[in-house]
Amino acid sequence: VRADVYVSAAAWRGDRDAPGLDPAVLERIQALEGVSAVDQIRGFRGRAEDRPVALRGVRMDLLDTETRFQVLQGPVWVEGEERVFVSEPFARKAGVVAGDRLSLETPGGIVRPTITAVVRDYGNEAGAITMDLSQMARWFGPGDPHGVALYLDPGVDPGDVLGRVSQATTAYGLTIQENRELRENALQVFDQTFRITVVLQGMALVIAAVGVTLTLLVLGTDEAGLLALYRALGATGGQVFRFFVAKGIAIALLGTVLGVAGGLALAAVLVHVVNPSYFGWSLEFHLPGGTLLRQAAWVLVAAAAAALVPALGASRPQRNALNPVEA
């Protein structure tokens, strides 16, 4: 999602025969002040390598193509030949790589363009093939674009342009969104999906605190004689108290280290194994250092608080702890 504002036909659902944008709409949008470039997008369902795929036509000559796509393999430029980009899910499922010839079904028969690059794409699990609009017109016949992506001049407010686009195209019933809105909607979906994890994190913190408390209570009971010996040798109640609090923090620290190591290993499996195998796409592995440090700090604070009650009990003198055992 690189453009600033997106406009699409409201009736577009991926059908090849669905009506596209009226040419008058394109003229009005291109004439708007503050718009530096307009990418036209045409798309419908098709077949390639004997499997269903989403076909997309864009202006490959617009701006810098490599900045509009996150390239995973390639680009392999083949002068004088037809070229296409394929998405990562399609490349994995079809077993193709950059530089291969692709078997693409068209109304006029099979064409075999060269795969210029494999690009990252999360829009379709079946995969997508992106080509220049001129190539799409030659292979599948001419047609109006189903949407446009607007790139704005530096400093231009996308919200202002969105309002002017809406005023200029009111009679056409279009879907208009800005980049920020699309990102916020996507993040909101993810937040709602993973909201349960926040509850689980809270429950895990409570359970860990209870575990530290019970562990230290048991240690205080089992080591009552040893604690009394320490007191007899001159240890103060404050020293015993601090000793137990330190034990609680040490237990939490060990658990945090093991938890972070296990979590990173699980995340690596999900990112590099599960997602590519199940969905066909990979994710960028990002280590949230700040979040991990904050969570680790909360765990240590909770452990210290959980150790207070056992530490208070252990710091009190135990009168009978050193009584000799009767024979």
Number of domains: 2
- Give the number of helices: 11
- Beta-sheet strand percentage? 15-25%
Helical coverage, percent range? 40-55%
Main-sheet strand order equals: 4-8-5-9-3-2-10-1-11
Structural class, by secondary structure, is alpha+beta
Average of per-residue pLDDT values: 81
Compute the gyration radius: what is it? 31 Å
Principal-axis shape equals: elongated
Care to count the β-strands? 11
Listing every helix as H and every strand as E from the N terminus to the C terminus, the arrangement reads EHEEHEEHEEEEHEHEHHHHHH
Low-pLDDT parts are: none
Query: How far is the N terminus from the C terminus?
Result: 82 Å
What profile does the largest beta sheet have?
Answer: 9 strands, mixed
What does this structure look like?
The chain has 327 residues and is of the alpha+beta class. The chain folds into two domains: 5-190, no CATH class; 194-315, no CATH class. Helices cover 48% and strands 19% of the residues. It contains eleven helices and eleven strands. It has helices at 23-30, 65-68, 88-94, 133-140, 158-168, 179-193, 195-222, 224-232, 237-278, 289-306, 308-315; strands spanning 5-9, 35-48, 51-58, 71-73, 83-87, 104-106, 109-111, 114-119, 128-132, 147-152, 174-178. The chain has a nine-stranded mixed beta sheet with strand order 4-8-5-9-3-2-10-1-11. A two-stranded antiparallel sheet has the order 6-7. Helix 7 (195-222) packs antiparallel against helix 9 (237-278) and helix 9 (237-278) packs antiparallel against helix 11. It is elongated, with a radius of gyration of 31 Å.
